[in-house]
């Protein structure tokens, strides 16, 4: 195409009047995109008449263009005369010289063309200049598109560079005093002298043809250079800085260019302006009202970035117009109360009463500070007159941690309403500039955005970029030019906008919402603003940013500026403006008066994810019992068949896998399950009962230890897969199993969010090895552990954490049970009432459940119990590695039949239980070490005098069953045995609880590894020696006599 431009058109500058007559025919081009087609208007084709080639005119050039393309593909496919013409033109022949008549061509050959051309080119040097000038103009346009944002006037204070760089790119003809002709000319001169473009002042009035990659011409295809520059300045260097040229999709780039370059795009109706003013009034006066009433309270006000409120409202209005019915939002502290009041429309009195420190909390748990609480609200969108549900997720202080949670919740809402393309449910994420740049979870969340099982089909990100993070300047807080650069990794366009220009803000928000609706991809709006107060209202910003704050003190509030603008334009009268303010102030005052009537604080009014129908109307569980988690033999057989077969035809699986499936089949015949089959039985049965299951994590489809194989791969057809679990019965719930990106923080947060959407789903996240969960520690500490206490919302997420000391070194060994146990809320020193319903009651009171199952049957039960319970609690499961294939780690169908339950404690059932009074030692343990203990006991022939009991549910602690077991072996001393080091594992958790159970009547001795800094040795021999040493301790009956 580039060659065609130079040869078929032989561009040369036209005068302005000529240009007006030579408007090229515009033909719309239609571009296919996901699910729809779009038409761009206008796309120019180079069809202007060119005087120098007599046969080229407006009507013939299409024909020439086609000939040219044909020639490019195959020079022999066109007539010889065209062949010669294109060769000459391509070689640089000047206008009029490229064409040679066919007659003269009888002996035409490329050897003839070259000497002829060289003389022609030499004879008309100005043609070269013309081509160069056009190329220069094209480069200039491109330079603005790529780098215009670097000089856009983004900082409302006018003292900072949003990209942290005061340098003006050398290839744009602008300066911060843009459009000042003198400055402009000087810069043009510098560029000319520098030889960058080779243009000079005399070119300013010359008319240049515009390339197809710009829309600045509107309906014109050629413009004088001066006008080209002016329009580029208007598009790219005013209050909007558009960063998009890194996107490697032409259609998307064209779309954005059209949105920002087309002349007159930023025009607003009177109605729109007045609505915008009213929204600015609400945003501004809300903060003023809070400041007036509670001047000594922290509220993390929005002052300096008030246009955030109309920005969000515009995104929501536009999205609602495009069919969105449900918007899930996540945001940090800044402006959160304002968003709750003016975007979500939480009742103002509910917000105001949060400021009343004397109000008592009605709900159990810690509650949370007001600027962390979530909210769910369904209402009519006044602009579109359509229903819309808005929810703001509760979040911790930990900045950006809520991002993946919002995405997971959004994905779940899309999944449950069959919204496969994100047309009805969307997410909006708000960020602070320092956090957006600094927190790695932002990057991890972006990387989920286009993965099939994690995409939410485009998120609109809004950065409240107040150009400061607490007391830290941006130049100390990030190494990238903008805080938003992280978004570039997923090709998200970034719209920087000066937040003191509300109309520009509204415009980019409209475009952002349209972008999301059109391309279903992420987009970022960067609201460049300032922070009028300190980090919070108590902070003194002058300590650290004196000059910035001197400027801020002089800065006229944006509402005032915008109101004055509209009054000057005549869009609104001063009286109307003042009435609007008075109206909103009155609303606030009335709500304030009502808030005084509130007697009690209800955190449950701040629930972000209600589960209608799951609880009673009072929010209580419908019962406090749990039915049997067993299954019929028939059902176990049916699921077992599916787990051991390939339910589709002509599907070739790997030979090794065939053997695995065959051995599963044999297990089913023998009425036994191993770990994988036990899990299969639990999943399969819940699916058949209508419970959706989603298992996500790194390599979960096969299973890190190659034991699961939930996704079969055809060995002959690329990417053909089969998930037998989805073939159980026609009316079953869907099973989702998905290998995730290599992120724990992001993916665990995502699954937690997914689990929030519905109580009727089993959502599991599996760590590759249990210790990797600590890169997601924030999700565990801030959401999973205290979520219900802070935000009265339950969550039944399951964490599968492979754990066990197997000589694999300090990593890959410990899932750190001690940390989970240390965060359990049960009291070690208080023996609960040992009533019949203690098991369920304890579960209801706990903050999470921690188990380490020693048998596949018990694992099966605990998974099923998770759903059959009438409430939801997070479940932490330490899962095995070597036990997956241990011949003894099998369970019989008998342990899984109707009437069976999860066993919180598996008592001694061997010879020791025959004469319990003769038993000298009762060893309590959990997990894999049980198999090492029983082996050692057998080797030593001590089965009659050492009993071993397995605590399968560590927390809530089975006080009742530990008591029963201790009383059964009344003459035995008590030992806690674990394979973990003494300062790790379970010891510190179980010891005081066993002591409480036996009323401190006996000591609880320790057999296990010594305290250590690392979780395990890297030396296999040392590992085995350690194991032998603590086995010796466990089975030496007088091992503790010196400690008596
Ligand atoms: C993960 C995390 N680290 C540190 C903090 C403490 N902190 C609270 S606000 C803040 C500054 C945030 O700056 P920015 O993201 O620009 O938002 P702003 O407060 O300016 O709106 C910091 C460091 C935190 N809340 N979370």
Quick summary:
This protein is an alpha/beta fold and 1044 residues long. 38% of the residues lie in helices and 13% in strands. Helix 11 (308-321) packs parallel to helix 12 (336-344) and helix 14 (402-416) crosses helix 25 (745-757).
Write up this protein.
By secondary structure, the protein is an alpha/beta fold. The protein is built from 34 helices and 30 strands. The strands form eight sheets. It has an eight-stranded mixed sheet with strand order 5-12-13-11-10-6-9-8, with helices on both faces. α14 packs across α25 (745-757), α22 (633-643) crosses α24 and α24 packs parallel to α30. It is globular, with a radius of gyration of 36 Å. The N and C termini lie far apart (92 Å). Mean pLDDT is 88; it is low at 1-55, 57-61 and 102-123. Bound molecules: thiamine diphosphate (TPP). Thiamine diphosphate binds next to α15.
